[in-house]
Design brief:
Structural class: mainly alpha
Helix content: over 70%
Strand content: under 5%
Largest sheet: none
Distance between the termini: 25 Å
């Protein structure tokens, strides 16, 4: 049975041969389509909400986004761990091991996701207050999150399922899961928001349905095309608990640094009023749509590094890292030109005025290359068994690489200065992350 699985076309390690830049491009573009579909729906949500002309509702979505970013980061960390372990097994052509890692990683992820979502749900009012929300905005934010947070475990299932598919090189089916989820959200949003006049509640319900769809659609191809899942056992879960969380623990800490830094920025911006928070909320949804390819790069390039590492091809691991940086530079340059040309129509789309308009149209896109470089460094560290290094890089970037700069520039340019300082701090840690990660790649011996 195992021998047949190894010979099946879908089960061959796809990334140990062929042009690496092409692999990076295909994986990033296909992965980004799914991600950008979800981000685009969030952006459409913001367009619909902005049509209500109620800054407190728009600001509530901004506060909620910061908290959902935090909870989603746990799912990202778990998916990184499962992806790294499955990709290594695929690279070694050990499909039995790959299925075991997928099974135990999924079960551990579900269990952890339920516990974490329950804890966040229980403490929501206090968490929202820490971000600076007050009055009706605070109540709206808590109401929205009370509905959405219980569905976060479904999103974790979908993320881990997508990670398993990408570990097998099956980026198209991983993309399909997020596309279907985004489609469900896009269809329900106008019906619930305007047809049934449910406003923020409608957005929340659509988000819940979307997460359930993503979970279901991601699991089907794993079962049909990649060996499915084993019957779980207590012994197997105990055996994989350590290797999964050896990567997932630092990876989760790495991912949590980003929403933590964003939460601190949100807190700073909240001091300039709801218009500033609304502008940041719009910009926060525009950025991942415009730069979805870069956001997808870390998850897309991880399996390429993992398979080649598992196959003992460190020369290809090194070249993957360098080609990934080239790819990042090309994408950021193209997107920057497009956004600069369309900056006025974009602001008009959201009916943005005054401070909100200024924040939506900030000229900081070009510096996002350094965020992409950090994504690349994180992927290399996580898939080569050095997840603590990625943790240090990310926490450095989102603490001492964010707070002092944001605070300093805010004294000169107000709310805009907060975002400028946040972007400039990323330059320093982007350069540092690339240097540390590439040194680590050169010093890592081949596995076989």
């Amino acid at each position: 049975m195992a021998e047949q699985a190894v010979k099946a076309p879908d089960q061959q390690p796809k990334f140990v041969e062929g042009n690496l830049f092409r692999h990076i491009t295909v994986m990033s573009l296909t992965n980004s389509v799914g991600l950008m579909a979800i981000f685009a729906v969030d952006l459409i949500n913001m367009v619909f909400i902005s049509m209500l002309n109620q800054e407190d509702i728009t600001a509530a979505v901004g506060y909620a986004g910061a908290i959902l970013f935090f909870t989603t980061s746990f799912g990202i960390g778990l998916s990184i761990a499962v992806s790294a372990l499955v990709a290594r097994a695929v690279g070694q052509r050990n499909l039995v091991m790959a299925r075991e890692k997928a099974t135990n990683g999924m079960i551990l992820g579900i269990g952890f996701g339920i516990i974490f979502a329950a804890v966040v749900w229980a403490f929501l009012p206090g968490i929202v207050s820490l971000l600076g929300a007050e009055g009706r905005t605070h109540a709206l934010t808590v109401h929205f999150l009370r509905i959405v947070i219980p569905a976060q475990p479904f999103l974790m299932v979908g993320m881990i399922g997508g990670a398993i598919l990408r570990s097998h090189g099956d980026a198209k089916r991983a993309m399909a899961a997020t596309l279907w989820g985004a489609a469900a959200n896009a269809v329900l949003d106008p019906i619930l928001i305007f047809g049934l006049h449910m406003d923020l509640t409608g957005v929340a319900i659509a988000s819940v349905v979307s997460r359930i769809v993503i979970a279901g659609v991601s699991l089907v191809p794993v079962i049909r095309h990649h060996g499915g899942f084993d019957r779980p056992s207590v012994e197997g879960l105990k055996a994989d608990l350590a290797p999964v969380y050896a990567i997932a623990g630092p990876a989760i800490l790495t991912q949590v640094a980003t929403p933590l830094g964003q939460a601190m920025v949100t807190r700073m911006v909240s001091g300039y009023g709801e218009a500033a928070v609304a502008g940041m909320a719009i910009a926060g949804r525009l950025t991942p749509v415009a730069l979805g390819v870069i956001f997808a790069l870390s998850g897309a390039i991880g399996p390429i590094i993992g398979q080649n590492y598992g196959a003992g091809r460190m020369d290809r691991v090194s070249q993957t890292f360098l080609d990934g940086l080239k790819f990042t530079a090309i994408v950021v340059a193209i997107v920057t030109v497009i956004l600069f040309a369309l900056r006025a129509p974009i602001a008009d789309l959201f009916h943005a005025q005054g401070l909100t308009r200024d924040l939506v149209c900030g000229p900081l896109c070009l510096l996002f290359f350094f965020n992409g470089a950090i994504f690349m460094a994180n992927a290399a560290c996580n898939n080569l068994g050095k997840p603590l290094m990625s943790t240090l890089i990310n926490w450095g970037r989102h603490t001492i690489g964010t707070v002092p700069f944001a605070w300093w520039f805010s004294h000169y340019w107000g709310a805009q200065g907060v975002l400028i300082g946040q972007a400039l701090g990323g330059v320093i840690f982007g350069i540092l992350g690339v240097w540390l990660a590439y040194r680590m790649i050169l010093a890592t011996p081949a596995r076989i």
